[in-house]
User: Which sequence fits this backbone?
């Protein structure tokens, strides 16, 4: 997984990215985050808020990881507000599945859809999934936001966004 994410960051020339900390049931992002920070890439990690928005924290080599609002791994440290993500060159987000049109099925809380929908100038957005989670079609709701592509443990797939 780390190799695919490293190649994506290099190809896009990203110097600042947002990335989530994976759970044991998702493709791993922890090694990518640690190495990106070591290489001088600014990595923002999400922190869930009760109001449905995401705060952000800058990843550091010695960052403490705790349990967030929903039991997910989240950084413990200085908290930046929701608009901090507006400065990244690339968003790397979780997904349960993504379809060939770029529609992402999340975990039902809408955090990333709200974030993407509120950004003035959204950079490329790639969802991290297993190869088997790239499907022909996923359910779509009016608030759902498409992704630019997916990153799996074996490949990176650019996708076309659906037409309005």
Assistant:
């Amino acid at each position: 997984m780390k190799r695919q994410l490293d190649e994506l960051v290099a190809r896009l020339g990203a110097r600042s990215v947002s990335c989530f900390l994976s759970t044991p049931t998702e493709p791993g992002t922890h090694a990518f985050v640690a190495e990106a920070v070591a290489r001088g890439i600014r990595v923002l990690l999400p922190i869930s808020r009760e109001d449905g928005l995401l705060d952000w924290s800058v990843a550091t080599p010695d960052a403490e990881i705790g349990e967030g609002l929903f039991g997910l791994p989240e950084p413990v440290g200085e908290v930046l507000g929701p608009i901090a993500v507006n400065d990244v060159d690339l968003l790397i987000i979780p997904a349960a599945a993504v379809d060939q049109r770029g529609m992402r099925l999340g975990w039902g809380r809408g955090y990333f859809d709200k974030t993407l929908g509120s950004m003035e100038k959204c950079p490329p957005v790639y969802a991290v999934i297993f190869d088997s989670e790239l499907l022909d079609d996923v359910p779509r709701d009016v608030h759902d936001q498409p992704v630019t592509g997916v990153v799996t443990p074996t490949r990176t797939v650019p996708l076309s966004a659906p037409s309005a």
The chain has a mean pLDDT of 93. The chain has three helices and twelve strands.
